[in-house]
Amino acid sequence: MGGIKNTFVRITRRVPGVLYEPLAKNGKERIAILTMHSDEDYLDFPTGPELAKRGYTALNANVMNKEGIVFSQPEKMKAVKAAVEYLRSLPYVEKIILMGHSGGGTLMSCYQAIAENGPEIFQSEDMI
C-alpha cells in the first residue's frame, strides 16, 4: 500500500467532496470509486483513503449541506450526478464505480436506474 493525496473539492455550491488519489500510479487510478451515504457526512469515511492506498481514485461526497440538513430525494440525485460529472472531468479517469454505504446503497441504485432509464422509471403507476 502506498501514500495518498487528499484534496477537498467543491463539487457544487452545496455538495462538498474529498478526492483521494494514490501517489504511485499503476493504472488502477483510472478507475474512480464514488462513495456516498444517503444522509451522513462521508468526507473522511475510511473507504476513500483505503481505496486510494490500493491504487484507485476515490471520491467521498456528501448529500447534505453544512448545517446538516439532508436534501430531498431529487436533490440527492442531482448531487450524485454532479459527483459523477466531476469524476468524468478528470482526464485520467476512464471508469466510475458507484458505491453506497447503508442508505447510500439505495441512493446509488436509484441514480443508476435513472441514468440508464430516465426519471420516468420511478414515475410509473406500476411502481409500488
List the helices and strands and how they pair.
Layout lengths: L3 E9 L2 E8 L8 E6 L10 H7 L3 E5 L11 H17 L5 E6 L2 H15 L11
Parallel strand pairs: 3-4, 3-5
Antiparallel strand pairs: 1-2, 2-4
Give the overall form.
globular
Strand composition percent: 25-35%
Alpha carbon gap, first and last residue: 46 Å
Q: How many runs of DSSP E, i.e. beta strands?
A: 5
- Listing every helix as H and every strand as E from the N terminus to the C terminus, the arrangement reads EEEHEHEH
Q: What is the percent of helical residues?
A: 25-40%
**Assembly form of the protein:** single chain
Structural class: alpha/beta
Unreliable spans are none
Radius of gyration: 15 Å
Main β sheet profile: 5 strands, mixed
Mean pLDDT: 89
Number of helices: 3
- Largest sheet: spatial strand order: 1-2-4-3-5
